[in-house]
Amino acid sequence: MNFWKKMKRSDWVFSTVLLSLYGFFANCRPAEPFLTPYLVGPKNISEEVVTNYLFPIWTYSYLAVLCPVFLLTDLLRYKPLIVTQGLFLVTNYIILCFATSLSALTYLQFNFAMVTSTEVAYFSYIYSVIPPERYQRATGYVRSAMLTGYTFGATLGQLLISLADTSYFHVNTITLGIMSVAFCISLGLPMPQQGMFFKKKVEVSTDTLNEVTDAFGGETDLAKQATGACCDWGNLKTSGKQMWESLKESYSSRRLVQWSLWWALATAGYGQVFNYVQLMWDHIEPSTTSSVYNGGVEAVCTLVGAAAAFSVGYIRVQWDVWGELSLGVFSAVGAGCVFLMGLTSNIWLCYAGYAIFKASYMFLITITMFQIAVNLSMECYALIFGINTFVALTLQTILTAIVVDTSTLGLDIVTQFLVYGGYYSTISVLFLLQGLYTICKHCRKSAEETKTDRPSSALKDKYGSEGQDLGSQSPPPQNIKEQLAL
């Protein structure tokens, strides 16, 4: 008990521990890698309905709620949105366990869109309750907890199905219990005093406020201002102006725009592959007649991707020069993997292609996020994160509406993956060309600087030896003076 009280009094340990625990349990979902087999198997929904009707609803709903949730996250100071996410995670698996109608499963897609849209609150919360000098350590703990939870959940799901012969229904009920634990943990998170943009105008201590109230025999204007300042129109207007200035400042950098462009383009394609890869696996080897290893594959892919992302911290590269070329090369690798997944009939080749694709994406997105964040304040970074996510989701929605939705092309899963491979190939060509241009420009600039330095070096060799004052030598001929002047 004394340890718990001591930890609670700490500036950052208590919040970080609770948020890490929440991240572990909220991402520990043993049933998630087996969603498609569960829908097309026990729920008896056709692959075409899942592909061309149910999954697109999630994309459209996610886009519809992302902006309001992003603004409410800061206005409501993060914790209410994290609690909301925990609640929707619980209802998500209640629906999966007990709903049978198509209309209920249609609502399930909107419910899960609320879960994914509130992730911005989880990622931003920690920066509002701890001092800046603890950002790096706290971020590492929180992300490690998420990764550990996801890997443990996928592994547990695979073990339950392969070794314990557990039904998909019971795996979902176990996941429901874990989500209930996550929801209970979210209730204990401390409430931040203010958001990053929507901040209180007047900050008055509780003791001072009580003294003023007692002295005047009721609620004063000061009390009203202190309790309602964060919600008045003037504060909203000021906060909106601050957000706009931060946005202009951030996107004034050409290099930041280029990294953000890759982030948005690649994340849209990754989202499509991630959402529909289970359908591809089920197409190659139907879950109703074959053993399913989705959980094991997801666990391995996450670990490989995490190792690739971790390696970024030990790579010493001049990213201003080689960054765009790296984006182009690894995007080409991703394109090849997506084409492999779409064209192969061997499930293990498809698994391998997905592992390499996910690792290359996590490697590049880590570099991209670091390059964007390195010269931005935390407020600007949170804003850029939200904007880039919104652009990526908009592109993903366009892809879904054209390629997947039955009201347009309504392509089968194999053709979809060929389209996604072509999409990544386009990204690769775009950044390869830009990267080659940047490298040529850098080499030309370096050559010009070397050429400019050469006359002074030659002059030193001819008229002054090392350790001697060049001014003590006889003056150089006029033609050399003219060269130096030029």
Automatic annotation (TrEMBL):
PANTHER family noted in UniProt: FOLATE TRANSPORTER (PTHR10686), THIAMINE TRANSPORTER 2 ISOFORM X1 (PTHR10686:SF38)
**Basic and acidic residues bias: where?**
448-464
Q: Which residues cross the membrane?
A: 54-75, 87-106, 112-130, 142-161, 167-191, 256-277, 297-315, 327-349, 355-374, 381-403, 423-440
Q: Does the keyword Membrane apply?
A: yes
Q: Return the annotated region ranges for Disordered.
A: 448-486
Hydrolase found in the keyword field: no
Report the subcellular localization. Answer: Membrane
Q: Provide the coiled-coil residue spans.
A: none
Please provide the record's keywords in A-Z order. Answer: Membrane, Transmembrane, Transmembrane helix, Transport
Molecular-function GO term, any one: vitamin transmembrane transporter activity
One Gene Ontology cellular component: plasma membrane
Look up and give the membrane topology term: Multi-pass membrane protein
In terms of SUPFAM superfamilies, this protein maps to: MFS general substrate transporter
User: What family is this?
Assistant: Belongs to the reduced folate carrier (RFC) transporter (TC 2.A.48) family.
Source organism of the structure: Cyprinus carpio (Common carp)
What InterPro entries is this protein classified in? Folate_carrier, MFS_trans_sf
- Top-rank taxon: Eukaryota
Full protein name: Thiamine transporter 2-like
